[in-house]
Amino acid sequence: MRRRVRELAMQGGRAEEIKLRLRSLKVLIVDDNAFMRKIVRDLLSNVGIRHMADAADGVAGLEAIRHAMPDLVILDWDMPFINGFEFVRVVRAPGVFPYSDLPIIMLTGYSERAHVLEAARLGVNEFLTKPVSANTLLHRIVSVVAQPRPMVYLDGCYRPAPRRGRLGPGPCEAPVA
What is the pTM of this model? Predict the structure, then answer.
């Protein structure tokens, strides 16, 4: 019985630690749809995140990273100028971008297996499809922030260590600036 109480106390302490971490977390939302950016801001606010910035396209998102220095990026796939995959290529390319280990959650309407695998190969930490619930988004944020996978240099780019085995050749080539 004492052991169970101790375990619950530790879990409660962990929950408080996570709540505090979420309150201090800086999140950048990169999506070309203003309504979707608002929905994501509302979801983040509902789970306790207080510091948010957003960008309407990939170019603005890269600039926002340099200025806001977020702890996490929530990224759409289909955007003008620089789409989500090109954005990830830039961020994960060695020597091109200063924050190559920045956690990225891709939140998109594309749920095909090929898209999920491509996102993983490029270095996305988590992949979610729209619509998304606050609870699902919270779980992915906690997994990325509280239990991050180590970043590895693989096939010319940085990405989270694969969960199971190798993902195959990665198309991360340093883009021309």
Answer: 0.82
Q: Say whether 123 sits in a helix, a strand or coil.
A: coil
pLDDT string in tens for the chain (177-residue length): 334 334 433 445 577 888 888 899 999 999 999 999 999 999 999 989 999 999 999 999 999 999 999 999 999 999 999 999 999 999 998 888 888 889 999 999 988 899 898 998 889 999 999 999 998 999 999 989 887 888 888 777 777 887 654 444 444 444 433
Tell me the one-letter amino acid at 99: Y
Please report, for the chain, the start and end positions of each structural domain, with discontinuous segments joined by +. Answer: 2-160
CA–CA dist 48, 61 (Å, integer): 23
Distances (CA, A) of 88 to 39, 43, 85, 145, 148: 22, 23, 5, 18, 17
60: exposed, middle or buried (C-beta count within 10 Å: 0-12, 13-18, 19+)?
A: middle
| Two tokens, residue 104 | 């990225």
For the segment(s) 2-160, the CATH number from 3.20.20.70, 3.40.50.2300, 3.55.10.10, 2.102.10.10 is: 3.40.50.2300
| Euclidean distance between CA atoms 16 and 7, whole angstroms | 14
Structure-block tokens of residue 74: 């929530």
